[in-house]
Amino acid sequence: MGEQVRDGFAELYGTAPEGVWSAPGRVNLIGEHTDYNDGFVMPFALPHTAVAAVSRRADGVLRLHSADVDGGVVELRLDDLVPGTDRTWTAYPAGVVWALREAGHPVTGADVHLASTVPAGAGLSSSAALEVVVALALNDLYELGLPRWKLARLCQRAENVYVGAPTGIMDQTASACCEEGHALFLDTRDLSQRQIPFDLAAEGMRLLVVDTRVKHSHSEGEYGKRRAGCERGAALLGVDALRDVPYGELDAALARLGDDEEAVRLVRHVVTEDERVEKVVELLRAGDPRAIGPVLVAGHASLRDDFRISCPELDLVVDTALATGALGARMTGGGFGGSAIVLAEAADVDTVTKAVQEAFAAAGFTAPRVFEAVPAAGARRLS
Ligand code: GLA
């Protein structure tokens, strides 16, 4: 896709771009709604990427164009970028420029042409991919020297403040820092990371992504409500973040919350989910990848019953996959739609896929999009 985007830029702006970059979407293997609780996550990068051809400008103008959106070039003045005012796709790249400048980095303008293969609204971090690809391009072109984790932080700030979606740090870090063939074990408190080898094919297994086609949006209220509820739970327990509740002290903590059922459910999910991430890391390191199946299933139950962010389509994927022999399955990402992942023996993939498709048809749901996910590379310069 790099060549196409390079050519698209030249056609649009009349000169070749200074460079072309790409940044992937992600799926999260385990560790959901833990990232804004200072907890653990374990995403890996998808082969689907956002690609950007970019050149610098010196005149305080930002020109943006997307091959995926109808409409021409959008021209913005850097001095006019105001958080919360843009409700369209341009808020993501513009938000990154805003965040860089607000942090004191001398970005004086850019021409940008983008194209993305990350499905939008599918819970696969299409917006983080857009942010990170622009951040990496500007970091290179303006020689800002920012490390990847810092770029992820700036992209999160763009998303939280400029776009106005109260998300955590997982998606941007995944897009910026993942490595091919690995899942990223990330501690969201200090962004320390470990690349965990994750080669399911070598073990005779596959990981499927099932996009339910139910569109979700983080700027809508439910995500923010869960986040606020977790912060309230931490305050009630007298800890900085739910990450600070030791696994062995969960029961005592829940007892202290008494009949505050809402807090009990949110706290229980986050603390057990952190423990599940560590369990998955341990199992993979011990060379026992099949054993992660039940841990994924437990994660789904917790998101469905305690965190209450699943939906009938996601539950149907999980139930059908498990009933037809999958090793594990769960919703992935923010919830309320989007995608599920299914871990299955290679030999069972066709049966499971067919069963999910038939179950969707029988329930009268839109046909899901199913594809295999193999851990791909993080953001990089293409040319
Ligand atoms: C979305 C957010 C992430 C994270 C997940 C849930 O993808 O962008 O920060 O909170 O939901 O794990």
From TrEMBL:
Residues reported in the UniProt entry to bind ATP: S66, G121, A122, G123, L124, S125, S126, S127
Catalytic-site annotation from UniProt: D171
Protein family according to the UniProt entry: Belongs to the GHMP kinase family. GalK subfamily.
Site label Transition state stabilizer, positions: R26
InterPro entries associated with the record: Galactokinase, Galactokinase_bac, Galactokinase_CS, GalKase_N, GHMP_kinase_C_dom, GHMP_kinase_C_sf, GHMP_kinase_N_dom, GHMP_knse_ATP-bd_CS
Purpose: Catalyzes the transfer of the gamma-phosphate of ATP to D-galactose to form alpha-D-galactose-1-phosphate (Gal-1-P).
Binding site for substrate: E32, H33, T34, D35, Y223
GO MF term list: galactokinase activity
Record organism: Streptomyces fuscus
Top-rank lineage group of the source organism: Bacteria
TM helices/strands, residue ranges: none
Record-given protein name: Galactokinase
Localization per record: Cytoplasm
UniProt catalytic activity: alpha-D-galactose + ATP = alpha-D-galactose 1-phosphate + ADP + H(+)
Pathway in which this enzyme or protein is active: Carbohydrate metabolism; galactose metabolism
Keywords: ATP-binding, Carbohydrate metabolism, Cytoplasm, Galactose metabolism, Kinase, Magnesium, Metal-binding, Nucleotide-binding, Transferase
Main location group: cytoplasm
Domain Galactokinase N-terminal per the UniProt entry, residue ranges: 9-56
Pfam families named among the record's database cross-references: GalKase_gal_bdg (PF10509), GHMP_kinases_C (PF08544), GHMP_kinases_N (PF00288)
EC number in record: 2.7.1.6
Gene3D superfamilies hit by this protein: 3.30.230.10, GHMP kinase, C-terminal domain
Occurrences of domain GHMP kinase C-terminal (ranges): 281-361
